[in-house]
Specification:
The chain is 27% helix and 27% strand. The protein contains twelve helices and 26 strands. Helix 1 packs parallel to helix 8.
Length: 450
């Protein structure tokens, strides 16, 4: 190590932890970078697990982004299947099971998330699947070969993916959720509607406005799910509850948590303790509209936060901006997505808004396999500054969500979007871009309200 090199210890080997490790090493290759993970692997995409279960991806090996040797070759020391028992910010030490006490110059907490405990009887039964670790997923995939009936608990993003995967697998699938529609806290009903219609076509039975009451077992294995809508037989239950921060280690060390339970960090990803940083699902991040704290975002957010934390822990200078959260996924036979606020969220927060809508197409109408694209834009009254969007369609949703996230961040208005230029090429873009048509509708709606 050079005289200026630091020992950077990272707890967690997910997207945030590996992003931090790479950034700390890049900032100064002489840094001693050590990662502790309780799992058997790092550097894979857990987001791809549902698609292997659904057979869209042929095997789990494709989810690994790098080999263990790759990290060794760049000098990142990863301790697999290792548990960190505690850390002490005052003395800058970490207590590691089986290894004892080790010191650090800078510590990065990237312990990720846990699924919220359903808090009902039967939670210790076998057959309850929490999708997270790839090695466990490999074993569960073998189980799926013999499963005839499954229940997914909650229509969260993971829940949507697993409902679709199980239906693709030919398993009788039930979805239980307390909300009136899928992604009830994020997505608007008119956007969720086509997804739910396609699930029905795929044989999925949906139980909306339904409360989970317990897991019913026999011989230590789940046999049914008890709900306010009655008992649903099942040999497997996917528990896709809300992601909560895995913050016990940090709280025991005295770090400050916010209203979401996530660790409070500044723009440099520094926590309330000196020389301790945090990144990923364990911390909370401000929303760009009003600063509302958010926790449990996507892998891309976690990785980017890890890069910031790792750079700053290693002596560099980098900031993480407030987020507007572009999102998107395939659910049923549709793609859905959005950015920032939808109508339901804006109404719940008491935020006034103007809405513009359009239903368009993804390609020229005469080009084969043309898909519908439905766009809804939300704007601030008066200025018509974009404050959110939601989309559903057959293709092109991810790209539009990314674009609209930049528009929200930069203060683009419906007037700007109503007159935007767009690519017209029969295989990839229609003459009229649905975003522009929705903006024109929003401008016209606002004019009528004056």
């Amino acid at each position: 190590m050079s005289p200026l090199a630091r020992k950077v210890v990272i707890i967690g080997g997910g997207a945030a932890g590996i992003g931090a490790a790479g950034a700390a090493k890049a900032a100064d290759p002489s840094n001693d970078v050590v990662v502790y993970t309780s799992f058997e692997d790092v550097g894979y995409s857990p987001c791809g697990i549902p698609y292997v279960h659904g057979k869209e991806i042929p095997d789990f090996q494709r989810l690994f982004l790098a080999t263990k040797e790759t990290y060794e070759n760049v000098g990142i020391d990863i301790h697999y299947e290792t548990t960190v028992r505690s850390f002490d910010p005052a003395n800058r030490t970490v207590e590691v099971e089986g290894e004892g006490t080790t010191s650090y110059d800078e510590l990065i907490v990237a312990t990720g998330f846990d699924y919220q405990d359903p808090g009902v009887p039967g939670g210790d039964l076998g057959g309850l699947y929490y999708v997270k670790n790839i090695r466990a997923a490999m074993e569960w995939d073998k189980v799926l070969d013999s499963v005839q009936r499954a229940v997914v608990v909650e229509a969260s993003p993971l829940g949507l993916e697993m409902v679709t995967a199980l239906a693709h697998r030919g398993i009788e699938t039930h979805l239980v959720d307390p909300h009136p529609w899928a992604l009830g806290e994020l997505c608007d009903p008119d956007v969720a509607g086509p997804v739910q219609e396609s699930w029905a076509e795929m044989g999925v039975t949906m139980h909306w406005n339904t409360t989970l009451r317990g897991f019913v077992g026999g011989g230590g294995q789940v046999r049914a799910v008890e709900t306010s809508d009655g008992e649903i037989p099942a040999e497997l239950v996917v528990v896709a509850t809300h992601k909560v921060p895995n913050n016990a280690l940090a709280l025991a060390a005295g770090l400050k948590a916010g209203s979401t339970g996530g660790l409070v960090v500044d723009a440099r990803m520094a926590t309330s303790a000196s020389h301790v940083w945090a990144a990923g699902d364990v911390c909370e991040i401000p929303h760009g509209l009003g600063g509302l704290p958010l926790q449990g975002l996507t892998g891309s957010h976690a990785y980017a936060q890890g890069k910031v934390a790792g750079t700053n822990a290693a002596g560099g200078e980098r900031s993480y901006q407030p987020v507007y959260v572009p999102w998107g996924m395939v659910a049923g036979k549709w793609m859905i997505g959005g950015v920032a606020l939808g109508e339901v969220a804006a109404a719940a927060l008491g935020i006034p808004h103007v809405v513009g809508r359009a239903t368009g197409i993804s390609r020229a109408r005469y080009y084969p396999d043309v898909k519908q694209v439905r766009v809804k834009l939300l704007a601030e009254p008066g200025t018509l500054r974009l404050i959110g969007a939601q989309l559903v369609g057959g293709e092109g949703i991810k790209e539009r969500a990314d674009f609209l996230a930049v528009c929200v961040r930069k203060g683009i208005t419906l007037h700007d979007l109503a007159t935007m230029e767009n690519v017209y090429s029969p295989p990839i873009g229609a003459l009229n871009e649905p975003i522009s048509v929705a903006a024109q509708d929003g401008v016209a709606t606002a004019a009528k309200q004056v």
